[in-house]
Structure formats: structure tokens, C-alpha cells
Amino acid sequence: MEAFLILWFLIGVVLFLIATCELYTLKTGVPTVTSLPSIRKKMVAILKKEEARRGAQRPLTILDLGSGTGKLTLEIGRALPAAHVTGLEISITPFLISKIRRWLWRILWRVTNVDYKREDFWLYDLSSVDVVVLYINGAIRDRMAEKLKKELPSGALIISNETHLPNWEPIKTQSAGLLKLKIVTYRQKR
Whole-angstrom Cα distance, residue 190 to residue 185? Predict the structure, then answer.
């Protein structure tokens, strides 16, 4: 009987977590979707090239807009230990998962340069960001393109998973993985 109650409790917790993700999807219009490993690997490679291109001026400030459960931000932080990596996530469940993951990665791989903020990315100031990483859907693409154009400093890099930003000219489009998903990079010009 006790095992049965524990099982129902766990099912209830899982259903609650799913419901909170769906609630924020309805609220924001943006679902919680994880980037595939091949995409994450390619994005990290692009970031390493950007870090090398900039040299030792100062550490890169990298922002993941809608960081979900934190997989990409932690992989970036591990690959670029001098960078400052911040993940923004408004949905409570993925945000909490990312905080737990960060704690584990600090212990296991000594990743200490990643932080997560539970903030709405529409209200976040992008004026001191060197690189923005994002995976957004078409519903907010136009508005996001405007925000990036208005707020990013000159020379900032945008790495977009499968999203073409209107009124932005890509500097490079690459494919990754078996599905040949697109990674589009842009550079802010002023």
C-alpha cells in the first residue's frame, strides 16, 4: 500500500511539472524545447571561434534567451571557462531544473561561470551582451528581431537555432545533425 501511495505521489509531481510548463507556454506563447546535442555542439564550436576572434580583450558575456533546463548554457560554460554565461528562463519548472543541474555541474565538472535568472527576456537589458543564443518559435520572431536590433551593442553576435530573424542579414547558415537543422548567425551592425 505504501509503494502505491509513493507511485501516485510521483505521478502527481510529474503531472504538476508538466502543467506548469504548459501554463507558461500559454502565458508566453513559447514552449519549452531543448536543443538537440548536435545543435548544442555546433553552437559551442561557433562560440569558441568567436572567443578566439576577439582574443583576450575581456571575457565574453553570453546570454541564452529562454534557457529552458540549462543544457546549452552549461555546455557553453564548460567549453568556455573564461566566459560569463547567463540563462534567462521565466517558466518555473525548467528554471528549477537548470539550478539543480548547475549545482551538479559545479561539483562534477567545476563549471562556475554559469548563472540563471528567472526573468522575462522582454524586460532584460541587452546593451552589455556580446553574444545571444536563442531558440524561439515564429510567434515571437518579429518582436525578438526588433528587440535585438534596438538593444544589442555593435559587433554583438546572435546564434539562432532554426530561426531566421526578419530584417537581419545572416553572416552564416550551417546545418547540424542527421536532421540537417539550421543554425543561423548574425552580427549587430550600427
Answer: 17
For 171, which DSSP code?
S
User: Measured between alpha carbons, how far is 177 from 155 in angstroms, rounded to an integer?
Assistant: 28
Surface-to-core class of residue 57, CB atoms within 10 Å of its CB (0-12 exposed, 13-18 middle, 19+ buried): exposed
Over residues 83-141, the pLDDT tens digits come to 999 999 998 888 999 999 999 999 999 999 999 999 999 999 999 999 999 988 777 89
71, 76, 63, 74: which is closest to 33 by C-alpha? 71
- Residue 31: alpha-carbon gap to chain centroid: 13
3-class secondary structure, 186: strand
Give the up-direction half-sphere exposure of residue 128: CA atoms within 13 A in the CB hemisphere.
7
pTM across the whole model: 0.88
Residue 10 identity (one-letter amino acid): L
Domains of the chain: 31-187 (3.40.50.150)
